[in-house]
Amino acid sequence: MLWLKDMPPHDGGAVRCDVMETEAGLIFSIVQNISQSMEVLDLRTYRDLQYVRNTESLMKVVDGKLKVASENPRSLNPKGFQELKDKVTQLLPLLPVLEQYKTDAKMILRLREEVRNLSLVLMAIQEEMGAYDYEELRQRVLLLETRLHSCMQKLGCGKLTGVSNPITVRASGSRFGSWMTDTMIPSSDNRVWSMDGYFKGRRVLEYRTMNDFMKGQNFVQHLLPHPWAGTGHVVYNGSLYYNKYQSNIIIKYHFRSRSVLVQRSLSGAGYNNTFPYSWGGSSDIDLMADENGLWAVYTTIPNAGNIVISRLEPQSLEVLQTWDTGFPKRSAGESFMICGTLYVTNSHLAGAKIYFAYYTNTSSYEYTDIPFHNQYSHISMMDYNPRERVLYTWNNGHQVLYNVTLFQVIKTSGD
Fold first, then answer.
1. Which Cys pairs are S-S linked (predicted)?
2. What are the residue boundaries of the structural domains of the chain, listed by start?
3. Which fold has domain 157-407?
4. Which end of the chain is more exposed for a tag (fewer CB within 10 A), N or C?
């Protein structure tokens, strides 16, 4: 996205008119981008609000049963009474969360209406230039951007509760591969990268926008100085992080300078199909990013083949902290990080579900049961993008997206 602060100053007659016409087009593009972002935010808030409303109904039912038991204690034994009381206590904190969701939902509707009105004004400007105060228009768009970012920041991290139906973006490449957008927050980078195959590949295709990727047009090629292994690559803040072929070395390749900025061995990590996911494909080392930064998922011989999570320093690739999940990597189809939690699928084939979660903030785990539709029956890459809050997957030569539903605790100004 091109921000208004980057626009050049202008003055004078016909030149001002020409510049203003150009800038009006740029502003219109910005408004469209903001509107699309709000549509995504609106959809996600609606889903989460439905979830909270269901929880509210459950609380009322449990509370009703508790009142009956309180009025007639003989109808419930002490153990059952205590269980009901504990459930109500756990549910009570959801009430302020529900109220905040309702408030945010109304705010989103107001923002969307304001953008719609502004778009109409812009269309009129493009037809009759000079009839609107440019500086006032610029300030309104900047205000919209500020309010949008404030709203999105309130929707903080949360626990994964659901995955949408698949959205097939494109069918291209071989059975195995990876594709991605920049995972850094915040970022206005709209480029899409595609890396076909998992064995000794060096060619990375860079598309200008998602629409260009869908059409297979407007792309440039990067030829990496070292081949890759697996499909566990990630783009973070304009650089590609990937596993060097036949090694446990991680490489940071900068796209704009077309150069390797740093490379570092991931000490003890298995490679060359020593500890891959269930589908193989040299998927020993899986790099990923979430709201908390850059991560590596792998395993070692001392860890007996169980999944290890390490948080990495993006500049030096130094390991900052490591967790042993106790989950065997060969039993996992794929995995991804959301808000510091590693989610693991039980298969790469049809019928797969997300059934294990490891929480790095508490060093604890639980078994989950979150189904998702594996439409093309062979997933060889599955990564979360925190900017867009979607899962990117490469599924048997198809590039597929999934929206995710997170149960989120809203941050208030007092937090």
1. 157-339
2. 22-63+100-121, 157-407
3. Neuraminidase (2.120.10)
4. C
Rounded to two decimals, the pTM is 0.67
Token pair 């030829």 is at which residue? Answer: 223
| Three-state DSSP state, 71 | helix
- In three-state secondary structure terms, 264 is strand
The pLDDT tens digits of the residues spanning 19-58 come to: 455 555 556 656 665 665 666 666 656 656 666 666 666 6
Contacts made by residues 291-297, CB under 8 angstroms, sequence distance 24+: 291/157, 291/185, 291/338, 291/339, 291/340, 291/386, 292/337, 292/339, 292/340, 294/234, 294/236, 294/241, 295/337, 296/250, 296/266, 296/269, 297/232, 297/335, 297/337, 297/342
Structure tokens at 202: 């060096």
Q: What DSSP element (H or E) covers 84?
A: helix 78-91
CA dist., res. 314 & res. 316, Å (int): 6
226-229, long-range: CB < 8 A, 24+ apart = 226/202, 226/251, 226/260, 226/263, 227/200, 227/201, 227/202, 228/195, 228/198, 228/200, 228/201, 228/202, 229/198, 229/199, 229/200, 229/271, 229/272, 229/282, 229/284, 229/285
Residues 19 and 7: their CA atoms lie apart, in Å, by 10
**Side chain identity at residue 41, one-letter code:** L
DSSP 331-399: G-S-EEEETTEEEEES-SSTT-EEEEEEETTTTEEEEEEEE---TTS-EEEEEEETTTTEEEEEETTEE
With residue 250 as reference, give the H or E element that holds it. strand 249-254
H helix intervals, 170-307:
210-215
Write down the H helix ranges in 92-173.
94-127, 134-154
Q: Identify the burial level of 391 via C-beta atoms within 10 angstroms of its C-beta, where 0-12 means exposed, 13-18 middle and 19 or more buried.
A: buried
